[in-house]
Structure formats: structure tokens, C-alpha cells
Amino acid sequence: MASHAAVDLPQKAACLGASPLPRPARFVPRRAARKAACSASGASRTQKAAVSSGVAAKAAATEAPSANSAASDQGDYSACATTFTTWLIKQEQLGIIDSEFAVVLSSIALACKQIASLVGRAGISNLTGLAGEENVQGEAQKKLDVVSNTVFSNCLRSTGRTGIIASEEEEFPVFVEETYSGNYVVVFDPLDGSSNIDAGISVGSIFGAYLPSEECSMEDAEDGETLLNNCVLNVCQPGNMLKAAGYCLYSTSTVLVLSVGNGVFGFTLDPLIGEFVMSHPYMQVPESGKIYSFNEGNYDMWDDDVKAYINSLKDPDKWGGKPYSSRYIGALVGDFHRTMLYGGIYGYPGATNAPNGKLRLLYECAPMSFLAEQAGGMGSTGKERVLDIDPTAVHQRVPLFIGSKKEVEYLESFTMGK
Ligand code: AHM
Ligand code: MG
């Protein structure tokens, strides 16, 4: 296999979105085949909203019985397990993804396996503690943040199908020089919630993948500055253009959850065979759930409407004597995975010291909101749908409220006065 050198682009503060970047009028898939493969690509925004929130969920529900029956037929799963690889092949056969995209997703699964192994052995392989550097957000990087970023980047580069990658741990998007074809744009947080690592608590990876935009062709880039601008334009696409999104939870088990736009599927890593095995077909977030997951230490710095919302959840008289339960790991992947399974709401609101909260739009809020909607839930800033936000910077932050549809709507009844 050919080697794939990456060019670290020249540093240019303006391109980080100090002023909003001009955006192309629309993003057009490069080939008709891709158009067919990605059902939402030619749809209007309204249609895409419908696809994400309702229609796709309905389609998933319609198809669900066959997947569920396949799962129940498995009994002793090892007899006829659906692995991530066989599932990917099936998606390709169905025309939901193309073979190039299957290679990209497969490389992400490989990165997740490697990171799971590193996380599991961190305490005995000198991988706990700080790396001694800060990332672009001014956060102290853990050793595993750095190693996980390298693993993710290398896996994506080695596919020859990824054109641009953007990571929480890299200041600028990176253009991968040698690609055979595909040029998919992948955004990721290689190890989210890494402050938990040294205590052996859940952490995770988050990722999203986009088609490249024709208007920002890498082929037209004659110099480093143009290349950098093209990279940023390619990366700064709204979540409603995502072609896939997912996360991998490193916890009591390693669980890869993803969607390519036709429902949400979860795969648990079987360490005995080194394969992700289908464990959660057609995941649906419960419509409601009495669990809230917020860092309440920030309460005094929140807006009055968010305070009023939280107070209402804790009022026993309002909920038949049993108020909501509070659960907060402090690792988005863990808190979100529980919300997907049990229902409820995860929130990271803006605060007086951080008006847009803490979480990053491109590689945290948008991919998780895509999954939430694909599973019948919602992702909101409290003011608008997360997937409709046009990013203006690679590391842009937005408030996030995500989870069960009825719970997010209830939150919005305070923040939007609905
Ligand atoms: P990170 O990307 O630097 O790890 O930060 C994101 C994490 C989320 O996983 C988690 O929900 C949140 O930060 C916790 O923040 P806080 O400690 O302020 O509650
Ligand atoms: Mg993160």
C-alpha cells in the first residue's frame, strides 16, 4: 500500500473563523453514484430535516423486524453473528454507502479497537497523566489524547479514501496528500472526556463524515493558503450534510454506535475474536425519560430559563412525588449512550463565563445530534436545531441539549418560551 503523507497546513488565525468564512451556495456530491447512495444529498433542508427526524426513523422502524429477528435468531451469537464488517458489506450491497465510504468507516472501527486497547492498558503502560502540552482550546492534553489522535489520523490516512481530517487535538484541518479516490472529510474527537482516564471511568471517541464539496476542490489549490482555506471550507459543513456519525464508548464494554442515515446501530467489541458484533440493531431513544445529565456545579452561571427548567425537574409536586434523577459522568459519550438507552436529557448550557458552553459543534454536538435524530430524539442549542447551524469555525462551541424528544421539547419550552 502506498504511503500517505499529510501536509500540516500553514497557521492562519483568520481561517479559524475570527470572521465567518464565505460558504458555497450548496454542496454537491461529486458523482451521481454518491447522490444515489446518500439519500438526503439532493433534498431540500426541510426534506432533510424530515428525513433526519421522522421519515428515516419510520423507515428504520419498518425494516426493524428483519434485523431484530436476525438478532434473535442468533441465540448463541457466535453461530451467525452480524459483525461490523458484514454489516458494512450489506449497507454497500443495499446502495446506502459506496465501497470507498465502507473503507473509511472500517478504518474508524479499527482506530476504535486500537484506542480501546490503549485505554484498557493505560494504567500499566505509562499512558496515564498529562502529555505536557495544551491543545488549541487551551486544555491540557493527556498522553492518551495525543496517542489516540495519532491512531485515528493514521487509520484514516492509510485508507487512501480520506481527503481531509479535522480533530479536537489539531489546530487546523489536515489535508491528506495521497488519496486514491473518495476524499471524504472526517471530523473527530479521538478521546472525549479524557479527564476521566486516570480514574478508569468511561471515555469515548466521536466522529462525523462528510462528502467533499465540489466548490472547494483541493485540485484548485495552488498554494498553502488556498489549500488551508479549502480545507476549512470542506470541514465547516452543517450537521444536516453529515453522511455518517458515530461514537465508540470505552467502558465495561467497548461499544461502537453509528448511523449512515438509515437508523442507528450498535456493535459491541468481542475481545475474544477482535470483532465488533451487532448488539443494538435500530436503536431508538425512548420518547421521554426522567434522568437529567448536567454539570450542576455551574448552576449559578446559567441563564434564568435554564435554572427554572432544572428547578422544575427537581420539584416532587410536579412529578407525582418522584422528581427526575440526576446522573452525570462528565464524559459526553458515556452520558449520551445512557441517554440513548434509558431516555432523558443531557445538557451543557451556556454560562456567564462561557456563553456558548463547552462542547464543540463539529466533532461533538453535530455528530451526536445526527445520532439522536436518527434514533427518534432531538439535539438543540435551546434556541435552534443543532444540525441546522452553519459552522463559522472549526473549533466553534455551542450549547447542547440532547436526548429524548419530549425532554428536549420540555427544555425548549423554557428557553424558547414555547
Ligand atoms: P473534552 O473534549 O476536553 O474531553 O471535553 C468534553 C467533555 C465532555 O465529554 C463532558 O460532557 C464535558 O466535557 C464535561 O465537562 P465538565 O467537566 O465541565 O462538566
Ligand atoms: Mg471532546
Automatic annotation (TrEMBL):
Species the sequence originates in: Ostreobium quekettii
Enzyme class, first EC level, given as a word: hydrolase
Organism placement in taxonomy: Eukaryota, Viridiplantae, Chlorophyta, core chlorophytes, Ulvophyceae
Record-annotated Fructose-1-6-bisphosphatase class 1 C-terminal domain positions: 285-414
Cofactor: Mg(2+)
Domain Fructose-1-6-bisphosphatase class I N-terminal: 84-281
Keywords: Carbohydrate metabolism, Hydrolase, Magnesium, Metal-binding
Magnesium listed as a keyword: yes
Protein name in UniProt: fructose-bisphosphatase
Gene3D superfamilies: 3.40.190.80, Fructose-1,6-Bisphosphatase, subunit A, domain 1
GO biological process: fructose 1,6-bisphosphate metabolic process; fructose 6-phosphate metabolic process; fructose metabolic process; gluconeogenesis; sucrose biosynthetic process
SUBUNIT field: Homotetramer.
Chemical reaction(s) catalysed: beta-D-fructose 1,6-bisphosphate + H2O = beta-D-fructose 6-phosphate + phosphate
Metabolic or biological pathway: Carbohydrate biosynthesis; Calvin cycle
Documented EC number(s): 3.1.3.11
InterPro entries: FBPase_C_dom (IPR044015), FBPase_class-1 (IPR000146), FBPase_N (IPR033391), FBPtase (IPR028343), Fructose_bisphosphatase_AS (IPR020548)
Family: Belongs to the FBPase class 1 family.
Domain of life: Eukaryota
MF terms (GO), sorted A to Z: fructose 1,6-bisphosphate 1-phosphatase activity; metal ion binding
GO cellular component: cytosol
